[in-house]
């Protein structure tokens, strides 16, 4: 204890300088948008570097499982190309409105209320805010943060996430939310009582979204219920993507999204 006290006494001037410097730096970042943006970008870069190093080590011990997943994805894509299968993951044609990029997940949280993933690519690789993110199995989330070399993704397991989901068989649509109870089950809200609902029904993305293409897989109905005096179902959806083990993802950009959003803003301004 005496040594600790002596250390603080010997270095009191330096420690006071460091303390005041940190306070001034914090105030500068909080009061200036430019400095705040630089800080966030630098933080993403630093965190991304650490996560990337950690992932390169853990991935080495996970090669067999990842090879099996990539092999299965290749099988499904081959079925898609040969028109012999109906369950293949969506792919974009050359004249599609969508661009597709790939990335690797270097960090993933799924036990919090507002979960995120970190990707090993960023703005210099063509990634943009609001790009949709999917795994070979289904929807993962939406890009919400960027630095030059890394990106963060708002996971579908985030209480702020609101992705449009629809029944593949009937096109009744609602909003995908997460109640934080189970990392592999989300809730589909706002489905009216007149909609036909059954266990095992497939839920997909809907064309009303400007982020995801129509028909991307999300999950299947694992439970549903409706009180007699309620107008909407309570529906649980088992995700196709195992959100606790996401490694490789694809990023989807709707090239017409800015034009659609601009038109929507014009309509909203007219209605006000």
Describe this structure in words.
With 272 residues, this protein is an alpha+beta fold. The protein has a single domain (32-255), classed as Thrombin, subunit H (Beta Barrel). Helix content is 33%, strand content 28%. It has helices spanning 2-10, 12-31, 33-60, 63-81, 257-271, and strands spanning 98-108, 114-119, 132-134, 139-146, 151-158, 163-167, 173-177, 185-189, 202-205, 217-225, 234-239, 248-254. A 6-stranded antiparallel beta barrel has the order 1-2-5-4-3-12. A 6-stranded antiparallel β-barrel has the order 6-7-8-11-10-9. A hairpin with a 4-residue loop joins β4 (139-146) and β5. α2 packs across α3. The radius of gyration is 23 Å and the shape is elongated. The chain starts with a helix and ends with a helix. Residues 81-89 have low confidence and may be disordered.
Q: Taking all residues together, what is the mean pLDDT?
A: 80
From the N-terminal CA to the C-terminal CA, the straight-line distance is 68 Å
The portion of residues forming beta strands comes to 25-35%
Q: What is the domain tally? A: 1
Helical percentage? 25-40%
User: Rg, please?
Assistant: 23 Å
Largest sheet: 6 strands, antiparallel, barrel
Q: So what's the CATH class?
A: Mainly Beta
The shape, in one word, is elongated
- CATH architecture level-2 label: Beta Barrel
* The CATH superfamily title: Rod shape-determining protein MreC, domain 1
